[in-house]
Design goal:
two-stranded antiparallel ribbon, alpha+beta, 245 residues, single chain, seven-stranded antiparallel beta sheet
Length: 245
């Protein structure tokens, strides 16, 4: 998926954790093989060319396409699984894959797990007694600095996802024009229970711009967000303060 994944696992029986980690890592490689739009032999590439039907693909393909269709509906089309007129589910795959890997490891009875996929993080459980997971949000205008620290205190599951231009430039597409999204934003960080959705909502809100994006994020249940503009303005949803610390 063109990025680095890291795992932080706390508690659990050592051998069971090792096996679960191996399975989680294998699942990420398999996701890349199935969904990559850069591999001519991937199932998604073959699906686009009409060589396969959805029913002939792995069941995960239909699952991801259904989730992507839901994201498109909730975002009124600001999140899209199409690029240059072709099916491209990569905007949802990374968050979904990281969340799935975290849940696979959590299922073996660990006390806590954190899976970080290119800076987007799924947190489950706790790292220790009376200790919540904490995630630093990079400041896009001050390399090496932090814009905020998100705490998972009181939450059994929490995800933090950021979309912006600091790391990869203008890679986010405005689905209404098909061109790079040009807005007043440099970064949108979304905090939600599931990384699948946090990643989608951050991308959609970035394409909307700060005013419309913030209003839309405020309307979503169990979602908080931090938006940073090119003019160094910080805007956030009403409940975000309760997640900082």
């Amino acid at each position: 998926m063109g990025t680095v994944f890291s795992f932080d696992v706390r508690g659990g029986e050592a051998e069971a954790v090792r096996i679960a980690l191996d399975e989680a890592i294998a699942s990420l490689h398999r996701v890349n093989e199935v969904f990559s739009t850069y591999r001519d032999d991937s199932q998604v590439s073959r699906l686009v060319r009409g060589e396969l039907t959805v029913e002939e693909c792995d069941p995960e393909v239909a699952e991801v396409l259904d989730l992507g269709a839901e994201a498109e509906q909730v975002s009124d089309g600001w999140f899209s699984m199409r690029y240059q007129g072709r099916l491209d589910p990569t905007g949802i795959v990374k968050g979904w894959a990281a969340e799935r890997a975290a849940r696979l490891i959590a299922a073996v009875g660990v006390s806590g797990v954190s899976v970080n996929g290119g800076g987007d993080v799924q947190l489950l459980g706790v790292p220790g007694p009376e200790r919540p997971w904490r995630v630093g949000v990079s400041d896009p205008l001050r390399p090496g600095g932090l814009a905020a620290v998100v705490s998972a205190a009181g939450a059994d599951e929490l995800a933090v996802a950021t979309s912006g231009t600091a790391e990869r430039g203008t890679h986010i597409v405005d689905p209404r024009t098909g061109r790079s999204a040009v807005t007043d934003l440099v970064a949108v960080t979304v905090v939600a229970p599931r990384l699948t959705w946090a990643d989608c909502w951050a991308t959609a809100a970035f394409a909307m711009g700060s005013r419309e994006g913030l209003a839309w994020l405020e309307s979503l249940p169990d979602v908080e967000a931090l938006l940073i503009t090119a003019g160094d303005e910080v805007r956030c949803t009403g409940g975000l303060a309760g997640r900082l610390g």
